[in-house]
Specification:
This protein is mainly alpha-helical and 164 residues long. The protein is built from 7 helices and 2 strands; from the N terminus they run ααααββααα. The longest helix is centred in the N-terminal third of the chain and has 19 residues.
Length: 164
């Protein structure tokens, strides 16, 4: 994946988060909810997975924006503290402030951009690294976030040490 996809992942998630706060739209809507790439994950039919949004396919179709949204859908869950299993939405951990969320997302993007592996896999790994090494995030919260990333087919790219 080309350097810069993290901007799509982080940037649109932060825009959606800010819009959500300003308008109180909540989890089931997002700034980009009118398009397929901005959809919110509520059941198996609207889940964005790595295999559905391949960077290779994006290069051939000319739609790199869609390829970058897999992590964005996971971040939307993190921001709102939601987990989705089938069509059941439950609560999980979430950052206590908007600033905490933005700091996490942009810090992970910064670490990713300076990495040898500048792709969404590395972004997911860096989010979990920050929560594991630089926060007091609970074991169950980290486990839930790793599960959410795994739902989007990004779990195998996260250092397992960061998930508990």
């Amino acid at each position: 994946m080309q350097h810069g996809y993290w901007i799509i992942e982080a940037g649109t998630s932060c825009c959606s988060a800010i819009t959500s706060v300003m308008t109180s739209i909540g989890y089931l809507k997002s700034y980009f909810s009118s398009s397929s790439i901005g959809r919110v994950h509520t059941n198996d039919s609207d889940l964005s997975k790595l295999t559905d949004f391949s960077c290779v396919n994006a290069a051939s179709t000319g739609d790199p924006y869609s390829a970058g949204r897999v992590v964005g859908q996971a971040l939307w869950k993190f921001y709102h503290g939601k987990k989705v299993d089938g069509d059941v939405i439950t609560n999980t951990w979430y950052p206590s402030t908007d600033t905490d969320f933005n700091t996490l997302v942009y810090w992970a993007a910064e670490l990713q951009s300076s990495s040898t592996y500048q792709d969404r896999y590395e972004f997911a790994n860096r989010v979990m690294e920050i929560l594991d090494k630089h926060s007091n995030w609970s074991s169950s919260g980290k486990g839930d976030y790793c599960d959410i990333f795994a739902t989007h087919e990004l779990g195998n790219y996260i250092d397992p040490e960061y998930c508990n």
